[in-house]
Structures are given as structure tokens and as C-alpha cells.
Design a protein that fits this description.
- The protein is mostly helical.
- It is 43% helix and 0% strand.
- The chain has helices at 12-17, 26-45.
- It is elongated.
- The chain starts with 11 loop residues before the first helix and ends in a 15-residue tail after the last helix.
Length: 60
């Protein structure tokens, strides 16, 4: 696999099953990190997590 093979394009499904087999996809990694961050935040902050509700009315 050369440095500029990505320029030629190709069959992404085939690349995923051969060249990148066993690797976590970028979207799966992002989802895993997001879940871990959420889990850590809930354990750290409990019910205090999140934004406080905005009590101002948009009509004033």
C-alpha cells in the first residue's frame, strides 16, 4: 500500500475487510469515547449534571 493509494479510490467494503480488518472504525471510536465521557460525567456529577434550566421567558 503506497502513500497515495487513497487517491485512486476503490472498493471501500473490500478495504475494510482486508486492509483494515480488526481495526475500530472512526465512528465506532467516537461513539465509544462519547459513551465513556457520559458515563464518567454521570458518576461524577450525578443528578447535578447538565445545564440549569433557563427561567427567562423569550416573550419579555
Amino acid at each position: 500500500m503506497g502513500a497515495f493509494d487513497w487517491l485512486r479510490g476503490g472498493n471501500d467494503s473490500e478495504l475494510a475487510s482486508t486492509t483494515y480488518a480488526g481495526r475500530e472504525s472512526a465512528s465506532d471510536e467516537a461513539s465509544r469515547r462519547r459513551r465513556a465521557a457520559h458515563r464518567n460525567r454521570v458518576q461524577r456529577d450525578g443528578d447535578r449534571a447538565g445545564m440549569k434550566p433557563d427561567r427567562r421567558s423569550n416573550w419579555t
